[in-house]
Amino acid sequence: MTKDADVKATPSAPAPKATAKKKPVIFTIIGRQRVGKTTLLNALAQTVHDQGGTPEIWNTDLLNRSHSISNFHDADSPAAGDTKRQRKWLEEKIQSLMESRHDAILDIGGGWTALHELINTESLSRALDMMGITLSVVFLIGHERADLDYLEDLQKKKKFSPRNSAIIINEGLIPPSLDVDDVVDVVSHHPAVEEAMENGADIFMYPAAEPMKDVCDRAMTFSAYAAGEQKDGFPTSSIFDRLAMDRWYRRDFPAFLQELGASRLPNMPKGLPVPAESDV
């Protein structure tokens, strides 16, 4: 649940007719440090909450203090310890979804993580299939070839090639000197990406927002920042930054989620948010 109070409602798609509840989704992001994993997960968690969802938030990124997802949401975390102990904690949390049928948003952090430990020691994909749980994996990258090392390494081990994964390029990491279409072309022809796409992966662009760092530094919700709430100890945010964040959270990010598709995302009872009009 988001810690800050919501300021204004996000537009919603019409609620679909009642259908059989889809399988629980564990949504997580794999990638190098400082590619924007926690920020994207935070925005997703806030949106899911705005749309009536109640996902569990799991945080095994214990080294990230300043921008931790735990600063924004009531997150469950393992006790401090090595990755093997964290792996056992993660196993227990995953198994608990069999009974609760909740969705989960998992922030694993960068480097060698509890999830990597679990992948390396267990047949994770098969276990989740047996439990009736969908693992929705995003590989978040910038423009550097090394950003795809995690994907390439996991494929080489032949232990982890999740179906219908998403390869997301963070637009905010692309230097102005590079053409976005050229970056997408290079990424799409990387051997690891081509192999992932054969297994159902798609490539998406995660939209940039200039004041993103200001919001994260203040540990505020996106809607609260856009509404002009201020944080003690920080300079007053400018009206232009607030408008830019309002446009991003109500137009650009919902459009991005629409492209990702509901099947990859935690359940939103009100439906995926509808992107606001372009003149916001």
UniProtKB/TrEMBL annotation:
Q: Compositional bias (Low complexity) at which positions?
A: 8-18
Q: Which InterPro entries match?
A: P-loop_NTPase
What protein is this chain from?
A: Uncharacterized protein
Disordered: region residues: 1-21
Q: Which SUPFAM superfamilies match?
A: P-loop containing nucleoside triphosphate hydrolases
Q: Which organism is it from?
A: Gluconobacter albidus
Lineage, top-rank taxon, reads: Bacteria
